[in-house]
Amino acid sequence: MNDVVLRLNGVEKVYKKGLAGEVHVLRGVDLSLSKGETVALVAPSGAGKSTLLHIAGLLDAPDVGEVSVGGEVLSGRSDRRRTNARRRDVGFVYQFHHLLPEFSALENIVLPQMANGVSKSVAEARGMELLGGVGVAHRAGHRPAALSGGEQQRVAFCRALANTPRVMLADEPTGNLDPATSDQVFDALMALVRNTGLSALVATHNMELAARMDRVVRLEDGILVNA
Ligand code: ADP
Fold first, then answer.
1. Which of 126, 137, 174 lies closest to 153 in space, CA to CA?
2. pLDDT digits (tens, 9 = 90+) for 2-48
3. Which of 3, 27, 134, 162 could form a disulfide with 35 if both were Cys (CB 3.0 to 4.6 A apart)?
4. Rounded distance from Cα 199 to ligand 1 centre (Å)
């Protein structure tokens, strides 16, 4: 049986552009992500990938259509309900790591867990396990500024997974790295996702990286087509 973790149903989004009129960015996006499935989202810049990821991650609401996470329709629910669902079920990764600069790699993964009521020792054990899974356990005590770009992104992946979400949403997660590093870091991300049984929707420009995922969808004129 296909356990659907994330579903977008007829999602539309229009941005008002002042006197210039409006941009109909999403025109009826349908997408289902099964448990453990990895899907690449490809499209040219400006096509609406970030908009789609924000709506899928409950950071923004669609104008039309529905978003369900874990079988529960959350679009149209209260801010509090959506925020709680996002904190529990969604892990975000961006092109830039957004780690807290004054805390170590491990602390950056421990703090979100403690904010969710996990004890420090349990959070540290999980943090070290996650860091080990992407090959940076030996960098646990370093602050982000002391890490390479690739190491920073590996830590950001761990932070996104800290609270065992159902789905990871990533917006050009290796877009800021040189090609060789990007390659390795992307593989580390895929291994982490597969080892944890997580589902992932990853926006990327890189078709070679996209091909390493289970499925590729393309955003074209506001709808998703299979690539
Ligand atoms: P991508 O991630 O594929 O580069 P975006 O989702 O960032 O695309 O943007 C898609 C389109 O929507 C662009 O034309 C962009 O200018 C517009 N857009 C994005 N966010 C806003 C916003 N908050 N207000 C107005 N227009 C926006």
1. 174
2. 699 999 999 999 998 877 788 999 999 999 999 999 999 999 889 99
3. 3
4. 25
Instruction: Give the Å distance between the CA of 206 and the centre of ligand 1.
Output: 20
Provide the residue ranges of all domains of the chain, joining segments of one domain with +. Answer: 37-60+89-226
Answer yes or no: is the C-beta of 23 below 6 A from any ligand 1 atom.
Answer: yes
pTM: 0.93
* Ligand 1 pocket check for 14: Cβ under 6 Å: no
Chain centroid offset of residue 47 CA: 18
How do the residues of the chain divide into helix, strand and coil, expressed in percent and rounded to 5? 40, 30, 35
The CATH number of the domain covering residues in 37-60+89-226 = 3.40.50.300
The number of C-alpha atoms within 13 Å of 38 and in the hemisphere containing its C-beta is 21
